[in-house]
Structures are given as C-alpha cells and as structure tokens.
Amino acid sequence: MARAAATTILTLLLPTNSSLGLYASADSSQTGLLMALNFAFLEGKFNGSTLIVLGRNAVFSATREMPIVGGSGVFRFARGYAKARTHFSDFKTSDAVVQYDVYVLHY
Ligand SMILES: *[C@@H]1O[C@H](CO)[C@@H](O)[C@H](O)[C@H]1NC(C)=O
User: Signal peptide location in the record (predicted)?
Assistant: First the structure.
C-alpha cells in the first residue's frame, strides 16, 4: 500500500567537538569540508530512526545548508536539507554548539 509523503521539521541543538562526524577537506581556498553526519534518535517519536547528512560544510559561514541523503526507520527514503548555525565555538578545545534546522520529506 502506498503511503503519502510526510514532512518533518526538526530543530536539533548539538553540542559537538571535532570528533563528531566524518570530515574531509573539500576546498583549497577557504575552510570548506565534506561532512558526513549520522543523526541517531535515541528517544521520543523517532527513537531508533536515523538521518544522514552529507554535503559541503563551510564551517566559518554563518549558516550552512547541507543535503539530507537518506535515513532509516521512520526516515526511510528521506530527502531534505539541514541548515546549520554555530552558536558557540572554542578553537582551543574544539568544542562547539551547532543548531541544525532539518526539513525532511519521508514516507
Ligand atoms: C528507544 O528504543 C530502544 C530500542 O527499542 C529502547 O530500548 C529504549 O528504551 C527507547 N528509549 C526511550 C527513551 O524510549
């Protein structure tokens, strides 16, 4: 049976450090990184589901848009985008707090 697509809008506030996610250099002129990030939901309505973000992250830009390329559980066949905004960062400790506004279309 076909199910209608749903749109989910999430705001995720992520305390992070440089060890979270997979980064690759993707730019020679400014700090542009290729980032792969796996959001795994461990509670609530989406417990057990994941969302995969893969795209260019120009870390020094105020907002960065990255594609949602897929997911699992509730987010199977997910497509969408995430907008990342850094609220706080400390280059000495590599700590940061980043807000991800996620718009995702799924079934
Ligand atoms: C999330 O799901 C797992 C696996 O089903 C379960 O063990 C866990 O208790 C759930 N967590 C919450 C907060 O509901």
Answer: 1-21
